[in-house]
């Protein structure tokens, strides 16, 4: 498909936007990145995603595709080259399952830490995050067999689904002092995180941790009347919740 | 085919999520062994096959478990791709649309219908039904484009999105019996679609009886004071 008109509506800090960016990079597809202005939603976004009004939205030949992992699957199907989803039906199902789990359980547990009403609930949420990482460590071990990525020698679907959260995970670690990717608990994931972040297709799309920390602090200052009592890690997660609502 | 004998489905008879897997298997003419689970006493096989969620449906094919209803449907379509109708559209954009709307069904529709099931009084159920109907409005509008003028979202045959939404029809019909409301009253496209879907041979063969679901809903409500229906 030569001379495709490919646009991606997004925002630099959003983990969900990172996903299609990585996928497009893996396929070597050139695209125009349309950065949404902070605090407002463009006409194009509202017209392209009237149901959710959220980023990312991929526009291919003017047709909008929404929901980050659905966009990643679309990119995998629409362009040849690097395979993102495995070709084997069972492994495809496993990849889709973990992509679903990351968005359905793991990430909400992470952002849920800040919303936990009691210390007990907070402790439980943190445990859920670590339990999830343990599951994913096992998946990496099983699918990896010594390979660097969930996708084997190359970045695949699970790598993209999980790896897109590394920026905010690191920012959280910086501000909260709590280490989520712990070599003593999930050594494979720690190694994976480094390799993933250094990958050509990822480097340019991964936001800098310090910039995310700055962004979170800016948001806190902006909304300080409402979140004065919150600790730094809560600020970060509130920012992330805000980002996810974009 | 030896492979077909090695297909097992763990489920609950009234679960729309399990119904999805059953419809997909039936569309492909796949024979399988069905295991009815008891939510209060989950089998070892279920706990071993779905340690993350411990929920149904679980498809076990040649000993390998696949979980999450629409992921199971896609798996069935992939494995038995040469058999029966195609479930996921072959065009990438159409496939993305089918996935998007199926996600919408699970993300927005299911919780809204959950409120209907959990409504403690008939009035509460009626109010929740009206909310749930509003949630279907975008699908009502999308129907024409998705169906390309045919009977189903998948066109001539039942497809991915038909299965995602249609699996709820038995609960919608049960809700209509309980509330006296005609659910698709203001949704003519979906009303026509529901009629076609409900009349489809494959659907007729796998859907539980509406009255059985009505009884089931009433029993749970009476016993546990409005718990949710079997979920995945």
TrEMBL record, chain A:
Domain GST C-terminal: 88-223
PROSITE patterns: GST_CTER (PS50405), GST_NTER (PS50404)
Chief site of localization: cytoplasm
Catalyzed reactions: RX + glutathione = an S-substituted glutathione + a halide anion + H(+)
The entry's keywords: Cytoplasm, Transferase
EC number: 2.5.1.18
Protein name, UniProt field: Glutathione S-transferase
UniProtKB/TrEMBL annotation, chain B:
Gene Ontology CC terms, in alphabetical order: cytosol
InterPro entries registered for this protein in UniProt: Glutathione-S-Trfase_C-like, Glutathione-S-Trfase_C_sf, Glutathione_S-Trfase, Glutathione_S-Trfase_N, GST_C_Tau, Omega/Tau-like, Thioredoxin-like_sf
Domain GST C-terminal positions: 91-224
Domain of life: Eukaryota
Top enzyme class: transferase
Subcellular localization: Cytoplasm, Cytosol
Keywords: Cytoplasm, Transferase
Family: Belongs to the GST superfamily. Tau family.
Matching PANTHER family: GLUTATHIONE S-TRANSFERASE U19, GLUTATHIONE S-TRANSFERASE, GST, SUPERFAMILY, GST DOMAIN CONTAINING
Protein name: Glutathione S-transferase
Organism of provenance: Dioscorea zingiberensis
């Amino acid at each position: 498909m030569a001379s495709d008109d490919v646009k991606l509506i997004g925002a630099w800090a959003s983990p969900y936007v990172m996903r299609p960016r990585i996928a497009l990079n893996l396929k070597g597809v050139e695209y125009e990145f349309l950065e949404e202005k902070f605090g407002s939603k463009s006409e194009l976004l509202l017209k392209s995603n009237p149901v959710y009004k959220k980023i990312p939205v991929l526009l291919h030949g003017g047709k909008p595709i929404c929901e980050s992992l659905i966009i990643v699957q679309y990119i995998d199907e629409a362009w040849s080259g690097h395979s993102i989803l495995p070709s084997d039906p069972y492994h495809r199902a496993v990849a889709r399952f973990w992509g679903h789990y990351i968005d359905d359980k793991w990430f909400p547990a992470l952002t849920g830490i800040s919303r936990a009403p009691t210390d007990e609930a907070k402790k439980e949420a943190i445990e859920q995050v670590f339990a999830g990482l343990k599951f994913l460590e096992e998946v990496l071990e099983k699918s990896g067999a010594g390979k660097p990525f969930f996708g084997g020698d190359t970045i695949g679907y699970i790598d993209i689904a999980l790896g897109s959260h590394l920026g905010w995970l690191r920012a959280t670690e910086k501000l909260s002092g709590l280490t989520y990717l712990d070599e003593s608990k999930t050594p494979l994931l720690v190694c994976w995180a480094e390799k993933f972040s250094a990958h050509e297709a990822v480097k340019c799309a991964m936001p800098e941790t310090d910039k995310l920390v700055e962004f979170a602090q800016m948001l806190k200052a902006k909304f300080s009347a409402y979140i004065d009592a919150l600790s730094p890690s809560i600020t970060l997660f509130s920012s992330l919740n805000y980002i996810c609502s974009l | 085919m030896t492979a077909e004998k090695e297909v097992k489905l763990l489920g609950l008879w009234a679960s729309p999520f399990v119904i999805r897997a059953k419809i997909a298997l039936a569309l492909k003419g796949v024979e399988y062994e069905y295991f009815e689970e008891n939510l209060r006493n989950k089998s070892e096989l279920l706990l071993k096959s779905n340690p993350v969620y411990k929920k149904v449906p679980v498809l076990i094919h040649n000993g390998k478990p696949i979980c999450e209803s629409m992921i199971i449907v896609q798996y069935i379509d992939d494995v038995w791709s040469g058999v029966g109708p195609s479930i996921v559209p072959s065009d990438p954009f159409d496939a993305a649309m089918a996935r998007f709307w199926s996600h919408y069904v699970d993300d927005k529709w299911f919780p809204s219908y959950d409120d209907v099931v959990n409504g403690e009084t008939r009035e509460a159920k009626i109010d929740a039904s009206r909310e749930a109907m509003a949630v279907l409005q975008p699908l009502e509008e999308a129907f024409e484009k998705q169906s390309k003028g045919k009977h189903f979202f998948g066109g001539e045959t039942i497809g991915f999105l038909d299965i995602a939404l249609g699996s709820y029809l038995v609960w919608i019909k049960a809700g209509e019996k309980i509330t006296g409301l005609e659910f698709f009253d203001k949704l003519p496209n979906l009303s026509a679609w529901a009629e076609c879907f409900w009349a489809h041979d494959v659907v007729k063969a796998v859907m539980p009886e509406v009255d059985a679901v009505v009884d089931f809903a009433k029993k749970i409500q009476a016993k546990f004071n409005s718990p949710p229906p079997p979920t995945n």
